[in-house]
């Protein structure tokens, strides 16, 4: 069950990633060496973002929120073009890459039936590889931020850790893309990014690697109360502007993203 949940967001995330990557905003290049993953074939390439989808469990209080995200990588991109790689695939030589993200923050009404979100500093990010694709997670319980391992995660490879530095987001149900309840807002978080030894074998350039990462997400409609499960797309890039600016930039692409996601669902 949860194994499929780790992959179910890939088509929508891929569509959104293509559109975001085709924008005028450029991100820093980095080099991936996939042969460092046990069982992967030799393959080295340059990319500027990692596209994926996520499931988010968020609990809202009186003007506060606590959030926990399970993100699954779907594909690497460079200048708007998808790169042939072994991540998220099926068959021999493939592997899964995923992230566990926890954070907290505050929110206020934006006067349009939505909300503005601000992330506190101090949350956490772990980026891992499941080389043999045999793990699984279940969602946190109410008020709990920890995803529970229900498969074999003991052999997963920790690539990097990070701490949340800042972040911003907006939910706006008046957006034209939000009619069917998809692409109703965006968010961005800024974290530091500390590679492990295994991570240095995977992210092989530049050296030293970037010390700041950014996660740019889009999400579907949800109620800002109680505990909610939210899905959406999320890109990872490195050494970028402040997340508040990129969260607003993401809103400008919601129209295109909404069209792409509706087309994807129509084909399913």
TrEMBL record:
<feature type="domain" description="Ice-binding protein C-terminal">
    <location>
        <begin position="240"/>
        <end position="262"/>
    </location>
</feature>
<dbReference type="Pfam" id="PF07589">
    <property type="entry name" value="PEP-CTERM"/>
</dbReference>
<protein>
    <recommendedName>
        <fullName>Ice-binding protein C-terminal domain-containing protein</fullName>
    </recommendedName>
</protein>
<keyword id="KW-0732">Signal</keyword>
<feature type="signal peptide">
    <location>
        <begin position="1"/>
        <end position="26"/>
    </location>
</feature>
<dbReference type="InterPro" id="IPR013424">
    <property type="entry name" value="Ice-binding_C"/>
</dbReference>
